Amino acid sequence: LAKTTQPISMDSYEGQEVNITCSHNNIATNDYITWYQQFPSQGPRFIIQGYKTKVTNEVASLFIPADRKSSTLSLPRVSLSDTAVYYCLVGDMNRDDKIIFGKGTRLHILP
Amino acid sequence: NAGVTQTPKFRVLKTGQSMTLLCAQDMNHEYMYWYRQDPGMGLRLIHYSVGEGTTAKGEVPDGYNVSRLKKQNFLLGLESAAPSQTSVYFCASSYSAGANVLTFGAGSRLTVL
User: CB of A73 within 8 A of CB of A20?
Assistant: First the structure.
């Protein structure tokens, strides 16, 4: 499994765009990048997944450069309810049985 | 669909007592996982299962046992609870390996006195 590095915490204000970057220098050819969101007292929930370039859904966008050694989760116009911990995971869809979470990025949205 | 259901949601134990946490999923998922989360920490994998009748160790397996007798259920047992096992426990399941999306339960908060 490729190891990931992301900031421990970030602060932002309501209405701003928030970008959280994850480094995964030893990502393998078959690895996908997946982001989860965890609110206090809840289990994590899937928000977005990608392999290369850009993926967008109703919640976020995921930007992956050509070398795939990093990825950026972009949350448009955040609100207080986006305060959560965000986890970046890298893994092979067909191979990696162990799903290891790091400590994630604690995002705090201020009014 | 209920998704992933964990029971109990809360439990207080005394040191040395035993208990079992139950995780049930109704999505016909092959893979199931048990994690623990301590305050301010990320999730740490305890044990996991890649199918009925199989189990494997994760990052922090000591002090825990698991069983997957039925595909839909994954049990986490504490034979002799210790205060260090005070934590929130999360169960998750997925269709298959690796980058497949995990569906999590709501968590079980365990306190060992």
Answer: yes
